[in-house]
Specification:
Layout lengths: L1 H9 L5 E3 L5 H15 L5 H16 L10 E3 L15 E9 L6 E7 L2 E6 L3 E6 L4 E6 L6 E8 L2 E6 L3 E6 L5 E6 L5 E8 L2 E6 L3 E2 L6 E9 L4 E8 L8 E3 L4 E4 L5 E4 L5 E5 L7 E6 L5 E5 L2 E5 L6 E6 L8 E5 L4 E5 L3 E8 L1
Antiparallel strand pairs: 1-2, 3-27, 4-5, 5-6, 6-7, 8-9, 9-10, 10-11, 12-13, 13-15, 14-15, 15-16, 17-18, 18-19, 19-20, 21-22, 22-23, 23-24, 25-26, 26-27
């Protein structure tokens, strides 16, 4: 393990590894170490085993005896490696929502699709598209965002600077949190019991053309945990999104910024060509789904590559994204339809 770590840190192609006794268990351990060092895909284990088998065959190493074999194994620096993510997306269901009210938000809660129907309330459908029921909301015209707490509990944020925690099975409000913020930008993300509330108002950053907004991190009781600043100057579709250990934001100039949950900048991504990023949704392992001009793309966890994973056949101006990690379903929705896509590795 020390030898492998030394190679990774030094980038030396002439480092010698001495193999004294090798068993199948040793090869498995070595493959696991190399997999982490090289950041390779699952096939690396097989490739390393084959490599070691060839080396040991030529060296005529017997496990019952001790032999010294010097080999040169060049390991590229991690920044030189590009391992594309293999993601396959298939349309599972298109659900037309023929309603009188305007559709604004959509999330999955267990096997239910929850949509905000402006003027009506929350429209609940089964995942097969069958209409279930409508939950009336007193402040439905002011609904801003929906976010999932668990499969039977959602939170509804309002432009009146409040958040209701709602029980889907009963349709009753469990508790209401008043956001003691003078100006909220109507953008709220949620992760592990904490809300990330974007406050209205900007301050300039070191980038002359970018601005920052304050994000107030608080729990569902309204207690402020900390404040952070992110580059974001957008309103409308999702422009702030969180993962288990990251926060993403879209800036005024369509750059994607990635921070840790303490507000420390990890990286920023600038598209090769000018474009308008319509929406974002966190995927898995620090990756991000991005909607640009009728296509869904996947941005890598290091912010260095952006690959098209789906071209949308039906794309309207008002659209947004949501990804459910448990069901591995990507939800793309516009003013009339909800599209469910199955995501496979």
């Amino acid at each position: 393990m020390k030898a492998a770590e030394q190679i990774r840190l030094s980038g030396n192609s002439d480092t010698g590894l001495k193999i004294k006794a090798v068993s199948s268990d040793d090869l498995y351990i070595f493959a696991e170490i190399a997999k982490k060092v090289l950041l390779e895909s699952e096939k690396l284990s097989t490739e390393i085993n084959q490599l070691m088998t060839n080396i040991l065959t030529k060296a005529k190493v017997k496990t019952a005896e001790r032999e010294n074999v010097n080999i040169n194994l060049r390991i590229p620096k991690s920044k030189d490696l590009y391992v594309p993510t293999s993601v396959k997306i298939e349309l599972k269901k298109c659900i037309p929502l023929n309603t009188e009210g305007l559709l604004r938000n959509c999330i999955l809660a267990g096997n239910n699709i929850v949509v905000t129907e402006i003027g009506k309330g929350l429209r609940i459908c089964k995942i097969d598209g069958t209409f279930d029921r409508t939950i009336k909301l007193e402040k439905v015209r002011y609904v801003n965002r929906l976010f999932l707490i668990d499969c039977n509990t959602i939170a509804v944020s309002y432009r009146l600077r409040s958040v209701d925690v709602l029980d889907l099975s009963t349709g009753l409000v469990k508790n209401t949190t008043e956001l003691n913020i003078s100006n909220t930008d109507y953008e709220i993300a949620y992760e592990d019991g904490l809300m990330y509330v974007v406050e209205y108002g900007d301050k300039f950053t070191s980038d002359s053309n970018e601005k920052e907004k304050k994000v107030i991190v608080m729990n569902l009781s309204g207690k402020v945990i900390r404040n952070i600043f992110v580059s974001s100057n957008r309103w409308g579709n999702t422009s702030v999104s969180t993962d288990s250990n990251r926060l993403f934001s879209i800036s005024k100039n369509n750059l994607v910024y990635c921070y840790d949950l303490k507000g420390i900048l990890k990286w920023k991504f600038q598209p090769d060509k000018p474009c308008y990023i319509e929406s974002i949704a966190t995927y898995e392992d620090g990756q991000l789904f991005v909607v640009i001009k009728g296509s869904i793309l996947l941005l890598s966890s290091d912010g260095k590559s952006l690959d098209v994973v789906l071209t949308l056949e039906h794309s309207k101006h008002k659209s947004d994204l949501y990804y459910d990690k448990a069901l591995k379903l990507l939800v793309y929705y516009d003013t009339n339809n909800v599209f469910l896509y199955q995501v496979k590795h």
